[in-house]
């Protein structure tokens, strides 16, 4: 079963990629950097969800 954090993290990671690309396209370094941060946060949340799900499976 997929954990809620995996879904939310994946969405944040994709949003970060879009934000980074938009920042790069318009030459806005701050927007580009925010996109990179969002990607890291999203990937971290997604991985947390995977670990949480794996632990849940091991306990069951």
Automatic annotation (TrEMBL):
Instruction: Specify the CsbD-like domain's residue ranges.
Output: 5-57
Highest taxon of the source? Bacteria
Which Pfam families does the record cross-reference, listed alphabetically? Answer: CsbD (PF05532)
Q: Which residues form the signal peptide?
A: none
The Swiss-Prot or TrEMBL record describes its family as follows: Belongs to the UPF0337 (CsbD) family.
Q: What protein does this entry describe?
A: CsbD family protein
